[in-house]
Amino acid sequence: MIKKYLLAPGPTPVPPEVLLRMAHPMIHHRSPDFSPIMEEVSEGLKWLFQTRHDVLIMASSGTGAMEGSISNFLSPGDKVLTVNGGKFGERWGKICKAFGINAIEIMVEWGEAVDPAIIADHLKKDPSIKGVYVQASETSTGVAHDVKSIAGIVKNYPDTMFVVDAITALGVFDIRPDEWGIDILITGSQKALMLPPGLAFASVSDKAWKMNERAKCSRFYLDFKKERDNLKKNTSAYTPAVSLIIGLQQVLRTLREEGLQNVFVRHSLLANATREGMKGFGLELFPKSSPSDAVTAVKAPEGFDGQQIYKRLRESCGITAAGGQDHLKGKIFRISHMGYCDKFDVITAISGVEMVLKEMGYSGELGSGVRRAEEIFLIL
To answer: Are 100 and 76 in contact (CB under 8 A)?
Structure first.
């Protein structure tokens, strides 16, 4: 028997109490039973997003919220900036192309964070740019972009909105959309929110809603205004993912009990221990700057295949991590430490990596990475 450990950057493990809550008998989404749940969840999401604005709830993956943040606020031919520093930054450009949006891609070397000065320079040269789209945490590379600094730049342009994909950032580290000036902040259910895939969320600022009034892109199911109007009545425009929303009610209660700042501190500690543990075993991290507290990307040692490391972790240790994407396939592997995760998940991950690489002929000392992580946990 091999026990399974889900340590991939989404889906992430779901707490037992959330699974049990979702296993309750189904209720009708237009009944009086469901309205109080939606009301509690709506208020809880405002707390989690640190915003006074409504947080829209959609039955989709996070990509649905990405698409909606383009189709609901832009018109064909509009010009935007997108930061392409990984697989998901690349997705912004692909969605823009599908809607006839002129996306100017800022190409960033994978493993690097974007320099906010580059964005400032683009906006200074061309104030007609309608939006800036970036990831807070680029899941494919394990890099966090400095969205606070970028927000400080974009908010000086009244006709330009700032859109942040926080799918692997919200609930991991501190993001303050109202205070910083983030106009649209999105996330998904299967990351730090500790739920199965199937829900997407978006907070929208007053500036963005004004742009929505002028937007000409086609939309139907992912109509943010329609969802906002229905949310005010504690319902949704279309059939919601009822069980997931019921599970979300339990997740938000759990997070409130822990405290938002404590959630951020926990993720920071787990990330630091994972990074230091990998380095303690002689491995090199992939990010050259600004590593994300959501996921750690590790370089495969010279002469070793990162895909084989990822595969062996799953087959011999029961640990589902993640490999590299596109040109990073075989060159890195990635371990998540977000959501329903604690110090012993990190220790398990590091131990599994040590054992797998040792079996593959790597020269590192067994236990050196685990020892370093344990030292960090004991100190803090």
So the answer is: yes
